[in-house]
Amino acid sequence: MPEMPPATLLAALGVYNLLPAIVFQPTRRRCDQAATEAAFTRRDPSSERLDARREFMRGFVAEHPEVRGHRHWNTILRGAVASHHAGHIPAWKLVIEKLMSQGLLDAIFATATVAAGVDFPARTVVLTGADARTGSGWRMLTASELQQMTGRAGRRGKDNVGFVVAAPGLHQDPESIAQLLKSPPDPLVSQFRATYTTLLNLLDAYGSFAPVREIAEKSFAHREAAHGIARLERAKAESEQRIEAKLSEANGNLSLAHALGLERLVSARARLQPARPQTRAELRRQWLDEVVQPGRVVGIGRSGQRLVLVTQRNDGNVNGIREDGGRATFALERIGPVYAPIYQLKDQFVEEAFADVRAKGRRLAIPEPRLRDARSEEADALSLIESRIDALTPASLDEVEKKTCTETLWAALPDAEAIERAVRQIESLRAEVWLPFEQRARVLAAFGYLDFEAEKVTERGRWLADLHIDRPVLVGEALESGLFASLGSIRIAAIMAALTSDEDRDYGELELDDAIVDILAQFEDIGFKVATEEWKHGVEPAPELNFSAAATAARWTAGAEWSMLVQETRAEEGDLCRMRSRTGEALLQVAALRKVHPQAALTAANTAEVILREPVR
After folding, report:
1. Contacts of 282 (CB under 8 A, 6+ apart)
2. Terminal CA-CA length for the chain
3. Crossing angle of helices 209-218 and 223-247, rounded to 10°
4. Paired residues of 137 in beta bridges
5. CA separation, residue 280 to residues 276, 370, 374, 509 (Å)
6. Distance CA 522, CA 447 (A)
7. Chain center to CA of 381
């Protein structure tokens, strides 16, 4: 069915006494369009409500002058409808929320983000589709998202029930909505992350990595790993109890340590035996696999007269260069002698390699191992293991007691193997939880913010721990280099805006002057050093700097009027507000470092005051 015009939709809801309503739309633009279209063709029949809205707006403007003359002002007054989404400034969204709560609006056209962000229920919730718009395209709503949206239906104390309406539309899917409404909520996802500041604060508070690791394991984010560890610990304890019960038959001559020792010895014997070559061909294949490598010269065939310089190994085949310069590919088994030196694979060294081997011949050849020697070495190792196994049974016992102990010990072997498996799995799960913290600890240690070996936070690390900001190591290195101390308000605002803004958000195409471009380049150079160290230790790369945010923040800090900034950038007012707010918060973090970086802190404090002026609060 075609989409129902907004005014027609509201009229139909009104006939069935289903107003006020929250109509969820897929995009910000569609919210604004729907509110405007509805207000253009409908009028609020109640003059008292119109006067109440006008009076409320007049009083609100006195406290929040930034909403005066808003482009949707008449939409609210005339049509008793409004749009609500993240693209509006906070004060305007507050106007809408208060008007809705007081019963002065018939409908709000909103995006799905409203469902989880505010609390103004309505009699009816209208769903225009089962999809949500993201930065990378469309996706289905989740069960939790839909439950949040439909949970707004029904006003406490006014409605016995709430209503959910699936409005007609080309992309409407009532069957999917019905299925989602019956689905259980989505699993909770923890927002706990291994961050530099979290690690520094925990390490400084507890004094070593062990308690920090314990806290990480108990976090909700790693509840599955914690459950797995607890399950394995229980299984391990049960195996230990079974072993103790079996060993009691040995009259105190054996302990749990004996059973675990047997498991390790048997495991070592099992690993050694399959690797033991049984024939000369097996032994030679193992030897060739070890010694044939790029840069070595080998002879082909039994005589070994045809020489080849190995350039590459590929599974069971070898690639190389012949003496005449041609290419050769052959199986590993065709190789005869192998010569010890490893030559460079550059063209100028190829002839030298062949000449050297021709001149010195067998003196450079690597001796092939003999089967009896290999067997002798492995036999000695196996013999040592067997003697250790025999030694587990006390020598002071008589033959009957020894036999009983041996049988009891071997009977406990399956449980001992289960214990070792559980220990390995527990260690693996704990390592998985701790790995992100360890990676960041090594990065911090590389820049002198903590001593990894001593497990202590350094003096530099203590002030960095107070810097709750995106990419604290980058900001910390910029502060230590003196970069911030030399900046004025405009340039420090540009840097912080570029750092804290979403990398894919567009804030217009304002030009950056050369001074700001230069300082951003210096900041990126520091960021490259930090990112290189992070990459080395497996930390995910940080987002790119947002240059459009830097230009917009610089213009705002230079004194631009809000209306002019909105016009020049063509960005949503809500996005601009959020960017200024995040920039101001980051600057206040730097402003708190008065003791260690006084000049940068003073500039940051003054800049934050400018950034956070109206309409940014």
Report:
1. none
2. 44
3. 100
4. 134
5. 11, 8, 10, 74
6. 18
7. 47
pLDDT per residue as tens digits for the range 448-494: 999 999 999 999 999 999 999 888 999 999 999 999 888 899 999 99
Is pLDDT at 615 greater than 60 in this prediction?
yes
Choose between 357 and 278: higher pLDDT: 357
Q: What is the torsional sign of CA 91, 92, 97, 98?
A: positive
Residue where the block lists tokens 């067998």: 362
Q: Select from 541, 550, 475 the least CA-distant residue to 505.
A: 550
* Residues forming beta bridges with residue 133, ordered by sequence position: 138
**Angle subtended at Cα 353 by Cα 350 and Cα 359, rounded to the nearest 5 degrees:** 140
Task: Tell me the average pLDDT of the chain.
Answer: 86
pLDDT for residue 445: 95
Residue 511's Cβ-count burial label (10 Å; 0-12, 13-18, 19+) is exposed
Give the 3-state secondary structure of residue 367. coil
What's the token pair of residue 582? 């995040």
Task: Using the predicted structure, report yes or no on whether residue 363 has a pLDDT greater than 90.
Answer: no
Q: What's residue 513's pLDDT?
A: 87
pLDDT over 90 at 196, yes or no? yes
354, 234 Cβ separation under 8 angstroms: no
CA distance 574 to 276: 71
Please report, as a single letter, which amino acid is at residue 458.
Answer: T
Please name the helix (run of DSSP H) or strand (run of DSSP E) that holds residue 125, with its range, or none: strand 124-127
Selection from 113-122, 189-198, 293-302 with the highest mean pLDDT: 293-302
Report the distance separating Cα 201 and Cα 69, nearest Å. 47
Going through 233-392 in order, the beta strands assigned E by DSSP cover: 297-300, 306-314, 317-322, 327-331, 335-338
Residue 231: which residues within 8 A CB-CB, separation 6 or more? none
Residue linked to tokens 């990398």: 503
Q: What is the pLDDT of residues 304-362, one digit of tens each?
A: 888 999 999 887 789 999 988 888 888 888 888 999 999 988 888 888 899 998 888 88
